[in-house]
């Protein structure tokens, strides 16, 4: 997971800058959540979120800013991301992982024309999404008891 938190392109240009900095990350996040809202194939993962996706979008933007090599906004505001811990209240199975990745994959494909960068992002997000799986699916999509 530490490797996921320090991602810099081989020519020393951060992925954050390759995506267009703050504006590019906002565009990716906005499209990701638009897709989650409209794709029936993302129904279960959408139901895990609050009615308004604004707070989720803000958190994801801040996380991605630092994760992709830009300003560590999430860490400055909320500390270490601890992604699995923060997602522990939600049952995340392969189904939710796949639905989340469907939205992210499409958002990346729409925004990133560079094949090398696109493949790199697909791999990074896929590894992160795999890391979030915390159940076999028997209680998928349901908030876990505290």
How is the topology of this model organized?
Layout: H1 2-5, H2 15-18, H3 21-38, H4 43-47, H5 54-67, H6 73-78, H7 83-87, H8 94-111, H9 115-132
Helix pairs in contact: 3-5, 3-8, 8-9
Short description:
The chain has 146 residues and is an all-alpha fold. It has helices spanning 2-5, 15-18, 21-38, 43-47, 54-67, 73-78, 83-87, 94-111, 115-132. Helix 8 runs antiparallel to helix 9 (115-132).
Q: Can you tell me about this structure?
A:
Pfam families: Bac_globin. This is Globin. Belongs to the truncated hemoglobin family. Group II subfamily. One of its GO terms (molecular function) is oxygen carrier activity. The protein is an all-alpha fold. 63% of the residues lie in helices and 0% in strands. It has a single domain (2-132), classed as Globin-like, CATH 1.10.490.10. It has 9 helices and no strands. Helix 3 packs across helix 5 (54-67), helix 3 packs across helix 8 and helix 8 runs antiparallel to helix 9 (115-132). The radius of gyration is 15 Å and the shape is globular.
Task: Quickly list its features.
mainly alpha; 146 residues; 63% helix; Globin-like
CATH superfamily: Globins
- Total domain units: 1
Q: Alpha-carbon distance between the termini?
A: 24 Å
- Rg, alpha carbons: 15 Å
- β-sheet strand percentage: under 5%
Order of helices and strands: HHHHHHHHH
Label the CATH architecture: Orthogonal Bundle
In percent, how helical is the residue content?
55-70%
């Amino acid at each position: 997971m530490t490797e996921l938190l320090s991602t810099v392109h081989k020519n020393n240009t951060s992925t954050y800058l390759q995506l267009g900095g703050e504006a590019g990350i906002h565009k990716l996040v906005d499209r990701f959540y638009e897709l989650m809202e409209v794709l029936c194939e993302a129904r279960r993962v959408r139901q895990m979120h609050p009615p308004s996706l604004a707070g989720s979008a803000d958190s994801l933007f801040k996380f991605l800013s630092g994760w992709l090599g830009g300003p560590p906004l999430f860490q400055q505001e909320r500390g270490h991301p601890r992604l699995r811990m923060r997602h522990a209240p939600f049952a995340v199975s392969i189904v939710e992982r796949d639905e989340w990745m469907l939205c992210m994959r499409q958002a990346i494909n729409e925004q990133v024309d560079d094949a090398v960068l696109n493949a790199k992002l697909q791999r990074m997000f896929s590894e992160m999404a795999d890391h979030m799986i915390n159940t076999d699916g028997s209680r998928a999509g349901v908030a876990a008891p505290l």
